[in-house]
Design brief:
It is a single chain. This protein is α+β, with helices and mostly antiparallel strands. The chain has 2 domains: 44 residues; 142 residues, Sandwich (Immunoglobulin-like), CATH 2.60.40.10. The protein contains 2 helices and 11 strands. Strands 3, 4, 5, 8, 9, 10 and 11 form a 7-stranded antiparallel sheet that branches. The longest helix is centred in the first third of the chain and has 42 residues. The protein is elongated and about 105 Å long. The termini are far apart.
Length: 190
């Protein structure tokens, strides 16, 4: 082999190694840019949060909750559907399960609003104690912890790119503070 052939082989090897290194660097830069794009999408997508207020417990009044969903994201939420379920759980019984999906046997209770713009609220008004007016016995039972009033809910929606998202909440009326308290489990948004 001549010196010229050796130089051509070395030069070709250097070019090949440079090409491989360039491809690796380009791939790394592309991954970084994709990550930045994903973060931008997360920041710009709709995010729906939930707040709950419960009317004061009074003899002769209905116990009602006001559930407010607000789009705190930067883009509209489409195909918005929600469900809130209220229940009283006697002391010693398990807490209601989080609403990880809409119960198949309760599909008729789903409320749809279609669109929720950024900064816009949407409300649900579930009645507790089956919508009946509260008696002194009911009030005493709730206040001494014999029955715990629970709300569990879920809202599903899609973003402008058609990606599905949800928010779910779970909590109970805490008589010691006279307000709704979110439970440790069952509150999530994705």
């Amino acid at each position: 082999m001549t010196n010229a052939e050796i130089l051509i082989i070395v030069f070709t090897g250097v070019i090949a190694i440079t090409g491989i290194l360039g491809a690796l660097i380009f791939n790394n830069q592309l991954s970084v840019m994709q990550g930045q794009l994903d973060e931008m999408r997360e920041q710009r997508r709709p995010w729906i949060n939930c707040t709950v207020d419960i009317t004061p417990l009074q003899v002769g009044a209905q116990v009602q909750a006001r559930v407010q969903y607000t789009n705190v994201g930067q883009s509209p939420a489409f195909k918005v559907r929600n469900m809130v379920m209220a229940t009283g759980v006697e002391r010693g019984n398990p807490d209601p399960a989080p609403m990880v999906s809409f119960p198949a046997d309760q599909i008729d209770k789903i409320t749809s609003s279609g669109l929720l713009l950024p900064g816009s609220p949407m409300f649900a008004w579930p009645k507790l104690v089956n919508g009946a007016k509260i008696t002194q016995t009911d009030l005493d039972t709730i206040k001494n912890g014999g029955v715990v009033l629970w709300l569990v809910g879920r809202i599903e929606y899609v973003d402008g790119e058609g990606q599905p998202h949800f928010t779910m909440f779970s909590g109970f009326y805490d008589p010691s503070i006279g307000a709704f308290t979110y439970s440790i489990e069952g509150n999530d948004a994705r």
